[in-house]
Amino acid sequence: MRKRVERVVAASGVRGDVERVERLLGAARERHGADAVVLLGDLSARGEAEEYAGLLRALGEANLPAFYVPGPGDAPLGGYLREAYNAEVVFPFLHGVHGSFAFGPGYVLFAGMGGEVVDGARPEREEERRLRYPAWEAEYRLKVLHELRDYRRVFLLGTPPAHKGFGEAGSQTLAELVKTHSPRVVFVGGAEHIREELGSSLVVSPGALSEGRYAVVGISGREVEPQRL
Asked: In which domain of life is the source organism classified (predicted)?
């Protein structure tokens, strides 16, 4: 049993490629000595149950703590949630943290919000054709973190927080959430490797696994090592 999560292997944009995920997990165990794995959507290519089931089975059989959120393309949400629940019953190291949180070894709290998060007063909410959420919903779902101040925090976000380093795309509300809760590391979806500082938090886009990109991140020292499969 791992006593603490320190070294994390992370990737986004899996798009249903179980073979790449298995190679990533092999590298996490054998090359990097990872304590946990983080995956950010899109997890599937077509939003089909078989894709989620195969991906989650590969994660579970690796016997590493794994934390993940869906991406905008992982719709409809019901299919993802059903397969995630079934897999997490069988494999206790699996933790979906979409609009929720889970604990890793060593008082490390992983919290997340997948899909696309949109700022504004009344943006459309969508979970059937695309996962799209108003920013206030992310705030509401994660407000429980105010009561869990004794844990080191790691965020998983499908949408990057607003930051000049990520270009024009990004949510100002998520940026404020990061500044409020000061997670040690924030993992965000995106095709390219990006490393930025936001307040006291390190924000990392590990890159798209569909393009062979991933990253190894140290939680305590906040070291980032871009990698290629």
From this structure: Bacteria
